[in-house]
Amino acid sequence: MRRMLGALLAADPEIEFVGAAANPVVAREMIRDLNPDVITLDVEMPYMDGVSFLRKIMALRPTPVVMVSTLTTAGADVAVEALEIGAVDVIAKPYSAGAVAMDAFGAELRQKVKAAGQARPGRERAPRRNPQRNAARRLSERAVVAIGASTGGVEALKTVLMELSADCPPILIAQHMPAGFTAAFARRLDRECAMRVCEAADGTAIEPGLVCIAPGGLHMELARRRDKLVCALRPDEGALFFRPSVDVLFNSMARVARADGIGVILTGMGRDGAEGLLAMRRAGAMTVGQDERTSLIYGMPRAAFERGAVAEQLPLDGIADAIIAATDPGARRRASEEKRNAG
Prior knowledge:
This protein is of the alpha/beta class. It has 2 domains: 2-116, Response regulator (Rossmann fold, 3-Layer(aba) Sandwich), CATH 3.40.50.2300; 139-328, Methylesterase CheB, C-terminal domain (Rossmann fold), CATH 3.40.50. It has helices spanning 2-10, 24-34, 50-60, 73-85, 99-116, 153-161, 182-192, 246-256, 274-282, 300-306, 319-327, 331-342; strands at 39-42, 65-69, 89-92, 144-149, 171-175, 196-199, 210-213, 219-225, 228-234, 261-265, 286-290, 312-314. The strands form 3 sheets. It has a 7-stranded parallel β-sheet, sandwiched between helices. Strands 1-2-3 form a 3-stranded parallel β-sheet, with helices on both faces. The chain has a two-stranded antiparallel ribbon with strand order 8-9. Helix 3 (50-60) packs parallel to helix 4, helix 4 crosses helix 7 (182-192) and helix 8 runs parallel beside helix 9 (274-282). The longest helix is centred in the first third of the chain and has 18 residues, at 99-116. The chain starts with a helix and ends with a helix.
């Protein structure tokens, strides 16, 4: 696996492959001597597991890390934990050594490593607050929230969701993540957040207090079936690189939710979501983008902002409050009163 990863990375002239370590003991010395811009880290290693070593890296020498994981339930759970700790991204080991599988794996690996090279792992993190503080607020019954994220999105999404209460508006999430990992991500969020969180299935009913995560490898849309709002899943037609695509989700929100929609674009590499968020804004929806200071990679939010799709640009710790304010008519007035009283 080490030889394969090295060869695939070295095939890109924009990447300088500087070395491979057989275990964390050797890796620690190599990191000190070579000072790499990006590290790929296997979940399973001798002497020390990948997550334990990742904690040491993030505490002593914050460096962008891409986790390499087996596509199993246990492997996915550990990989999602690593993303919460601070890993930039995760990639699944290929099913086979066939040429087609290896070409696809190599292209994805190189894309993720180059994106990780632009990340800022030592950035300021937003403080966590009590999600129950908003539990008594009356929320709009028609509001639907859509959130799109990519690199760094696992930590950002958790920060936003942990500040929302159990009666929050329905939330649909498109997070760039490989197939097989989104179910583990949904399970972890469901255990830690006040609301219910699930990996969406085709036809999952949209309702308050429910967060639906788009499955990796599929696109998710908001749809209306028999006068009810549901999640609609469909495979990729080959025209889009990311599955799920944030643009696909946002465009469906513009068509179906229109002015009742709230669109949020978080940290990530590339431009996915910019056009869809613009469509939402033109349809009357409220649109929010994460600011540069708190973004691990200010790519997707920047593209949306420059396109004119973002009505309000906020730090990560202000996004949950913006969602609440948009769905509760009295929230802005109360927030203003609270600030006045605090002053």
